[in-house]
Design brief:
- This protein is an alpha/beta fold.
- Helix content is 43%, strand content 20%.
- A five-stranded mixed β-sheet has the order 3-2-1-4-5, with helices on both faces.
- A hairpin with a 4-residue loop joins strand 2 and strand 3.
- Helix 4 packs across helix 10, helix 5 runs parallel beside helix 7 and helix 7 packs antiparallel against helix 8.
- The radius of gyration is 21 Å and the shape is globular.
- 50% of the residues are buried.
Length: 362
């Protein structure tokens, strides 16, 4: 089974062709960093227009590298959400059009599920496993029970970790994209010089909060008479130290819940996925946690952590194996939770699906 994947949810235009034995025949990713860098972040309208301009060429390149044609495909999988709605519309429309014209199956892939299942493409991980999903827009801990079967343990109450990385990098004048720049700066820093907070550390549950950590960075900068390169490096290192400690604490609590609810007595598989999973300092912290807690820690290759179409194609394969496909009237979804039964968050209010905001206030 060969599937063409399309990824257009944010600022990467990507097309990939993947075989159901896990072989990636091609995975073409066109970054839009240069287009968004002058603005210090992703501009949705620019992103959507760039996808529209470049997707056809990226798809042609994917076919060329794979050495196949449309006649060899079983289906087309396109990110259907969550993401920037303009970009998602471009990918979904292109995917549905090609599927209709060629008589192929169409699968609308949840972008978060694509990240969640990537470890089954790269490492053949078996269900169930515990997932830490960390990216620019999401920070969640979930039990992955099967394709389409997820239980949310905790999520961020404010900023996602990737968002906190980018905002902190901006405060430090490190430019865009912020996450990699902040990590490079931390390589030359002393993590013990500044004592930054560790939000939610030791609290019950598995939720996250990073807005306070970002605010503490700003306050630390305000107290310095003159900000030097060493100051920036030391703050970056301290930020990483605090973030890593929070992730370790939240994951440890999630492991306890996972063992209890899933009835896993032996080693638990802990998976980290999403763009922030490429951060080597956070990987090192989770590797150490795994050694202490008898976990099997797995992270996809860095190239498959950031947004790419290979993970989308693989998620499509997982669904097609189960006989699942989507109708061509599928509507793109800017929001698409993996666990639809879990509480959602509006600001500081925890809201259950059947509640009004007032009833959900804690």
């Amino acid at each position: 089974m060969l599937v063409l994947g399309l990824e257009t949810s944010c600022d990467e235009t990507s097309a990939a062709i993947v075989r159901d034995d896990g072989t990636i025949l091609s995975n073409v990713v066109l970054s839009q960093l240069d287009e968004h860098r002058p603005y210090g972040g992703v501009v949705p309208e620019i992103a959507a227009r760039s996808h529209l301009d470049h997707l056809d060429g990226v798809v042609r390149q994917a076919f060329k590298e794979a050495g196949i044609g449309f006649g060899d495909l079983r289906g087309i999988a396109a990110t259907g959400g969550p993401g920037l709605i303009g970009g998602v519309m471009v990918g979904v429309t292109a995917g549905k059009t090609m599927a209709l014209a060629r008589g192929l199956d169409f699968v609308a892939v949840n972008h978060l599920e694509a990240h969640a299942l990537t470890v089954r493409l790269s490492d053949s991980a078996e269900f169930p496993y515990l997932l830490l999903l960390v990216s620019g827009g999401h920070c969640q801990l979930l039990a992955v029970r099967g394709v389409g079967d997820y239980r949310l343990y905790g999520s961020t109450m404010d900023d996602a970790l990737g968002e906190a990385f980018d905002k902190t990098a901006k405060l430090l004048g490190l430019g865009y994209p912020g996450g990699p720049a902040l990590e490079r700066a931390a390589d030359n820093g002393d993590p013990s010089r500044f004592d930054l907070p560790r939000p939610m550390l030791g609290r019950p549950g598995c939720d996250f909060s990073f807005a306070g950590l970002k605010t503490a960075v700003r306050q630390t900068l305000d107290r310095l008479p003159k900000v030097t390169e060493q100051d920036i490096a030391d703050i970056a290192a301290a930020f990483h130290k605090s973030a890593a400690a929070v992730l370790r604490d939240r994951c440890r609590r999630a492991v306890e819940r996972f063992r209890q609810e899933e009835g896993v007595e032996g080693s638990v598989t802990l998976v980290v996925a999403g763009g922030v999973a490429a951060n080597k300092r956070l990987r090192a912290e989770l590797t150490d946690l795994a050694a202490v807690e008898d976990l099997r820690f797995v992270a996809p290759p860095i190239a498959l952590c950031t947004d790419n179409a290979a993970m989308v194609a693989w998620a499509g394969i997982e669904h097609l194996r189960l006989g699942r496909k989507d109708r061509l009237d599928f509507a793109p979804r800017p929001r698409w939770p993996l666990d639809p039964t879990a509480r959602t968050r509006k600001g500081k209010l925890a809201i259950l699906p059947h509640q009004t905001p007032i009833e959900g206030a804690q």
